[in-house]
């Protein structure tokens, strides 16, 4: 045992606890750098913020720590749950990285000695001082799971979880635990097939966040997760919004700017190759046909990816020398490539025609790395608009159009990336390094072949 | 991307004086804000005093950047931002603010000026408006004139100090910092001196 326990500790701990009870709007906890005991209460409570003076932290923590571990070791001798809870509040506010303390709180919750909603509030205050505390986040997950099992609506919990995690993300850059908590919350409280509009909202909201936190890897990772959901098998119910026609926003300008020509010897109509005249509405091969597909999901998905690539281009040029932006771009390009490859598989298997012939035709192009794996078959029904039964001749026509469009997009993207890389080579020293690494990656990892 | 402080100072023969200051410290914990503000004011003054006019400097200190411009007429501007904020935009903003300040407030009142005697509310507006450099107004003209190679870059604040000077000593003997802020500085130093997870 301690030789002389700090006499005021019990008093300070109950002061802290009473602030929690008194103030339901409490927002923050912090330690005040006051090193001398001025013979006043070291507990401050101003404008919904709780502060504890530095000089007493050591003593209070040591007192709470030893008492809690004594209790833990003599489990059978029943400790008063109220005392235990009070000690835990103090100990966890000062040092939330101790898993044992969180487990003791879990036991109190299990025994119905603590209320789940109060616990969520308590964790958010712990996170205000230690925004990167993974134990606090996992405790939150445990509580939320318990609430959902108890019948609470996931959606009502979701907003609070996202807010708490994002506040933590604002406080601490590259806060992996916080953004991971957002992903967890979406997966468990609002899966994409049931709450497509929430994913769309997050997509819009994080766009603003990332432009203000350009070097935050973890924030970008969250956005990558949402993009994968929007374009993935669960995202088929994403409503068509903002742009009345997806084609015009990003796809057409991309095809236009890189001035791609149609794929040789694989189509019936032999239109002349396109000319990049900005005054004329752009006419590339199949232009009219592609317009018919403008509301298809595949076009919607392409639009999500291309809009993000557009944002990436803007940010990289505007803020040179930030590695996180370049890594995000790598993700986008490989995502786009696998998206195109995957959909080509579906189309080919959907056309139910001679796959070999197409495979041969494609092998000379930039999209040659696909194979007809079993996975592709599961996408088949999605591509053919839900009817997985027979394939009609009009279906085949649509397939052809889409295949043509995908080919054009892939080709245009290759050109676009090469242009982009050459536009970034000057200037900032770091930017040059990232740019040349990216260029190497494009050719050696992504195996992007540039159309001539 | 975040701007924390925008200060205008006058660099006198012996020391610098604050003419107008503006802060946005909402991203700090409530109890830290007072000390952070005192400390940012102290850094602004220290750095203006050690910049030989006319010159531009950008000093990196941890996750913060301190941009300073002292004009030939001894008017100085300091902008404290995070490391993401583009230095070019930062210096454009300082230039713009100092130009406007010089036209509004006559040079004769600078040496004796103080926060309360000078009326220049635009400073707060600029600090808020430039938080997002994308949305800041068209500054193309000044940007073209701004020669980036003229900005002297330093990787630590110690590099700006004169030979033999130590930041710890300057903090210890500063009159502008309260006891609490000095203690805050000491704990912050200690925390940052080793790697901590969480």
UniProtKB/TrEMBL annotation, chain A:
The keyword ATP-binding does not apply. One of its GO terms (cellular component) is cytoplasm. Residues 260-272 have a biased composition (Polar residues). Keywords: Prenyltransferase, Repeat, Transferase. PROSITE patterns: PFTA. Residues 260-279 are annotated as: Disordered. One of its GO terms (molecular function) is protein prenyltransferase activity. InterPro entries: Prenyl_trans_a. It comes from the Eukaryota. Belongs to the protein prenyltransferase subunit alpha family. PANTHER family: PROTEIN FARNESYLTRANSFERASE ALPHA SUBUNIT/RAB GERANYLGERANYL TRANSFERASE ALPHA SUBUNIT, PROTEIN PRENYLTRANSFERASE ALPHA SUBUNIT REPEAT-CONTAINING PROTEIN 1. This is Protein prenyltransferase alpha subunit repeat-containing protein 1. It comes from Gryllus longicercus.
From TrEMBL, chain B:
Belongs to the synaptobrevin family. Gene3D superfamilies: 1.20.5.110, Longin domain. It is a lipid-anchor. GO terms for biological process: endoplasmic reticulum to Golgi vesicle-mediated transport. The keyword Glycosyltransferase does not apply. PANTHER family: SYNAPTOBREVIN HOMOLOG YKT6. Signal peptide: none annotated. This is Synaptobrevin homolog YKT6. Keywords: Coiled coil, Lipoprotein, Membrane, Methylation, Palmitate, Prenylation. The lineage of its organism: Eukaryota, Metazoa, Ecdysozoa, Arthropoda, Hexapoda. Pfam families: Longin (PF13774), Synaptobrevin (PF00957). GO terms for molecular function: SNAP receptor activity. Residues 138-198 form the V-SNARE coiled-coil homology domain. Vesicular soluble NSF attachment protein receptor (v-SNARE) mediating vesicle docking and fusion to a specific acceptor cellular compartment. Functions in endoplasmic reticulum to Golgi transport; as part of a SNARE complex composed of GOSR1, GOSR2 and STX5. Functions in early/recycling endosome to TGN transport; as part of a SNARE complex composed of BET1L, GOSR1 and STX5. Has a S-palmitoyl transferase activity. It comes from Gryllus longicercus.
């Amino acid at each position: 045992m301690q030789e002389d326990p700090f006499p005021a500790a019990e008093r300070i701990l109950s002061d802290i606890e009473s602030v929690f009870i008194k103030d339901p709007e409490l927002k923050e906890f912090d330690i005040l750098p006051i090193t001398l005991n001025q013979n006043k209460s070291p507990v401050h409570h101003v404008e919904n913020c709780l502060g504890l003076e530095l000089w007493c932290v050591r003593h209070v923590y040591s007192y709470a720590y030893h008492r809690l571990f004594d209790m833990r070791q003599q489990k059978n001798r029943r400790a008063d749950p109220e005392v235990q809870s009070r000690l835990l509040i103090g100990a966890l506010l000062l040092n939330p990285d101790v898993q044992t303390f969180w487990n003791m709180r879990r036991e109190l919750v299990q025994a119905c000695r603590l209320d789940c909603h109060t616990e969520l509030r308590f964790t958010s205050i712990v996170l205000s001082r230690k925004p990167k505390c993974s134990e606090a986040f996992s405790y939150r997950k445990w509580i939320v799971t318990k609430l959902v099992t108890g019948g609470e609506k996931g959606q009502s919990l979701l907003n609070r979880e996202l807010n708490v995690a994002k506040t933590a993300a604002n406080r601490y850059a590259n806060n992996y635990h916080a953004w991971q908590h957002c992903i967890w919350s979406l997966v468990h409280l609002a899966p994409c097939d049931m709450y497509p509009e929430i994913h769309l909202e997050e997509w819009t909201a994080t766009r603003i966040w990332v432009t203000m936190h350009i070097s935050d890897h973890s924030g970008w990772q969250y956005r990558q997760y949402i993009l994968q959901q929007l374009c993935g098998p669960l995202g088929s119910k994403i409503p068509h919004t903002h742009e009345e026609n997806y084609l015009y926003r990003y796809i057409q300008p991309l095809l236009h700017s890189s001035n791609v020509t149609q794929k040789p010897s694989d189509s019936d109509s032999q239109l002349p190759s396109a000319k990049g005249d900005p005054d004329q509405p752009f006419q590339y091969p199949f232009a009219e046909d592609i317009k018919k597909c403008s509301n298809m999901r595949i076009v919607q998905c392409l639009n999500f990816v291309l809009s993000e690539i557009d944002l990436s281009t803007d940010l990289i040029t505007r803020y040179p020398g930030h590695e996180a932006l370049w890594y995000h771009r790598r993700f986008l390009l490989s995502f786009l490539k696998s998206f195109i490859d995957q959909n080509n598989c579906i189309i080919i298997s959907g056309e139910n025609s001679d796959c070999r012939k197409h495979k041969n035709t494609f092998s000379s192009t930039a999209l040659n790395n696909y194979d007809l794996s079993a996975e592709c078959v599961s996408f088949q029904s999605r591509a053919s608009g839900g009817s997985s039964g027979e394939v009609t001749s009009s279906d085949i026509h649509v397939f052809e159009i889409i295949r043509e469009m995908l080919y054009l997009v892939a080709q245009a993207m290759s050109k676009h990336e090469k242009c982009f890389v050459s536009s970034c080579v000057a200037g900032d020293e770091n930017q040059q390094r990232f740019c040349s690494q990216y260029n190497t990656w494009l050719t050696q990892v992504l195996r992007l072949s540039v159309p001539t | 991307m975040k701007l924390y402080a925008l200060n205008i100072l006058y660099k006198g023969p012996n020391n610098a004086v604050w003419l107008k200051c503006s802060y946005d410290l909402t991203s700090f914990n409530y109890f830290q804000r007072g000390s952070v503000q005192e400390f940012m004011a102290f850094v602004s003054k220290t750095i203006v005093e050690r910049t030989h006019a006319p010159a531009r400097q950008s000093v990196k200190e941890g996750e913060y950047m301190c941009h300073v411009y002292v004009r030939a007429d001894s008017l100085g501007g300091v902008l404290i931002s995070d490391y993401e904020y583009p230095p070019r935009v930062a210096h454009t903003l300082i230039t713009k603010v100092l130009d406007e300040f010089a036209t509004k407030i006559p040079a004769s009142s600078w040496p004796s000026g103080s926060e309360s005697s000078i009326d220049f509310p635009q400073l707060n507006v600029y600090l808020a408006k430039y938080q997002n450099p994308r949305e800041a107004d068209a500054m193309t003209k000044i940007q073209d004139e701004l020669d980036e190679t003229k900005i002297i870059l330093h990787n630590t604040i110690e590099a700006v100090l004169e030979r033999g000077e130590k930041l710890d000593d300057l903090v210890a003997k500063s009159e502008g910092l309260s006891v609490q802020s000095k203690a805050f500085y000491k704990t912050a130093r200690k925390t940052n001196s080793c790697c901590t997870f969480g």
